[in-house]
């Protein structure tokens, strides 16, 4: 198994947030996690990334227990909703950053970044500074920064939340294409049922600190707690 979580529990100030969370993620798979605001999705991603120290449970990545591995040695990239770009670096160098700190040679950096800029439709903006970009372009640069180091595991926390519907749809397709081309596994937190159904292979729903993983998309839709059935009925009515 690529990633296994065993009995993760977490509390803030004696307030339990995660309770006995178990999960198995296969290689090259995207797991979409939905759940009401405040149910603990971000906390779970940050524990996996090592940004929040684990209190109880085990995180096993590619057969290694990484409970105490520092975040920068986990080979995991956590990408939040806000595009955190370096304001003093242009688009090219923002994306190149992860390669520069790994001391990759300049020819390789040029090749990799140029290829990714094209995939992200950012080639024409390579020399712009972050303040000269639109929100959608910033998000794509943020995505490029995460992808350039080819992380085996990508954790995305509402990554397309700030985008208009059209750009969001483009990013969803791009995400699918790139994670499949680069053989990445990912956990994708979203509030959008349609987005989860579109981008994820597996779907989970978090409720009261418990994570339920569904056998398939239909099982997720059929479970009333997820609200997916109502939402799908709504869209069906709208399109009639
Ligand atoms: N540093 C903290 N100290 C205390 N409580 C916290 C802290 N961080 C989060 N919480 C609480 O833990 C709970 C879970 O928060 P978390 O951000 O993980 O939820 P979420 O499911 O990602 O929410 P959303 O969908 O709104 O982003 C919330 O009730 C939140 O108020």
From TrEMBL:
Xref: InterPro entries: AAA+_ATPase, ABC_SmlMolc_Importer, ABC_transporter-like_ATP-bd, ABC_transporter-like_CS, P-loop_NTPase
Limits of the ABC transporter domain: 3-233
Alphabetical UniProt keywords: ATP-binding, Nucleotide-binding, Transport
Record-level Gene Ontology MF annotations: ATP binding
Classification via PANTHER family: SPERMIDINE/PUTRESCINE IMPORT ATP-BINDING PROTEIN POTA (PTHR42781), SPERMIDINE_PUTRESCINE IMPORT ATP-BINDING PROTEIN POTA (PTHR42781:SF4)
Protein name: ABC transporter ATP-binding protein
């Amino acid at each position: 198994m690529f990633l296994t979580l065993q009995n993760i529990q977490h509390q803030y100030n004696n307030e339990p947030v995660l309770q006995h969370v178990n999960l198995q993620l296969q290689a090259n798979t995207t797991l979409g996690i939905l759940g009401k605001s405040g149910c603990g999705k971000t906390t779970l991603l940050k524990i996996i990334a090592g940004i929040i120290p684990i209190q109880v449970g085990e995180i096993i990545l590619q057969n290694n227990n990484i409970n105490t591995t520092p975040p920068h040695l986990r080979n995991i990239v956590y990408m939040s909703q806000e595009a955190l770009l370096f304001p003093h670096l242009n688009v090219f160098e923002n994306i190149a950053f992860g390669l520069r700190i790994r001391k990759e040679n300049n020819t390789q950096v040029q090749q990799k970044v140029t290829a990714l800029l094209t995939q992200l439709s950012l080639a024409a903006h390579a020399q712009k500074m972050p303040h000269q970009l639109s929100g959608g372009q910033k998000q794509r640069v943020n995505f490029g920064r995460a992808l350039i180091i080819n992380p085996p595991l990508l954790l995305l926390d509402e990554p397309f939340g700030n985008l208009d519907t059209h750009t969001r749809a483009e990013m969803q397709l791009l995400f699918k294409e790139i994670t499949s081309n680069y053989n990445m596994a990912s956990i994708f937190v979203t509030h959008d049922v349609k987005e989860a159904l579109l981008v994820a292979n597996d779907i989970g729903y978090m409720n009261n600190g418990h994570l339920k993983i569904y056998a398939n998309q239909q099982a997720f839709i059929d479970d009333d707690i997820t609200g997916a059935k109502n939402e799908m009925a709504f869209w069906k009515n709208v399109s009639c």
